[in-house]
Amino acid sequence: MAGMRWPPEDSEPPQGGRLQAASTAADMFSDDDRSIAADSWSIKSEYGSTLDDEQRHADAAEALSAVAFRASDYSSDKDDQYNEVEESVLGLQSHWDATYADELANFHEHGHVGEIWFGAEVMDTVAVWTARVCLSHRQPHNIDQADFANLELEEESSDAVAKELTSFNVLDIGTGNGLLLQALAKQGFSDLTGTDYSEAAVELARNLAVRDGFANINFVVDDILETKLERQFKLVMDKGTLDAIGLHPNGAVKRIMYWGSVSKLVAPGGLLVITSCNSTKDELVEEINNYQHSLSDTNSNSKEVLGCSPSVSSNSSSQLLFCCLDHIRTYPTFTFAGIEGTRVATVAFLRSV
Asked: Which CATH superfamily is domain 89-300+324-351 in?
């Protein structure tokens, strides 16, 4: 579940930074096709077997109850935003199981790495930019509305940089073939873990890591919506996973479950970096703020896009768990109907201490 497949280059122009993600499930697969795909790769691991739809709905309802979700916190406008993204087979685990089973077989036969979601250029850009954000993150008390990626870093030896980056334990959720973690390893990160709910994806990622000289990267079968991970991470990466979750037939509920899980996985003072092709930077910020307001006693009607500010006390009851730290500004832009946007958005969020 690492991300979305790019449409052909001659597809519809981008609209406000959002790309419609592939065809709908009804257009692509019949119910019989889905059943065959699900049966073709049965998931039974130490984390349990594939959940049927009935069980998943029950889990979603339980999660909503646990966070005391109120209808006023997520308005009908927000529901409409989610509904703009059509349901797709890209939101179904059966699709990813079948996809990665094919890619694993292709690797064994031809040595191919499989699909790189959003392309190799975006992946490398995210890795380099994330390393800069992590290095600049050492002195946030000197910055107000932070633009960490553009700060002038003090001159220091490569050994000092490497030591700084190795202090970050990294989690990539929905890792797919694991190549993003390899790109981060090349930047100097060393404590790296990738998770995916597809066993075939994890097996492919392990094989590629060993072949490419990154056998130290740890890969685990785990569903972010029902994570069994107990440790927290200073850096959590998501490249397309939230997009795929949103394409599930019950995507709006599952996105709320996603934020609940991610909130527990990012360590206090840690970073969450999300790359999306279905949401703009402002939409990601609004979504996480709306989720946080639903859990707090603050005014849920506020639509303020919150940035990180040292003026907010860590003991303040009004402080949100995450604030927007920075975003990648170097992606190529496109203009359509007078609106400028990018094909993808990458945003870094800082978790409060």
From this structure: Vaccinia Virus protein VP39 (3.40.50.150)
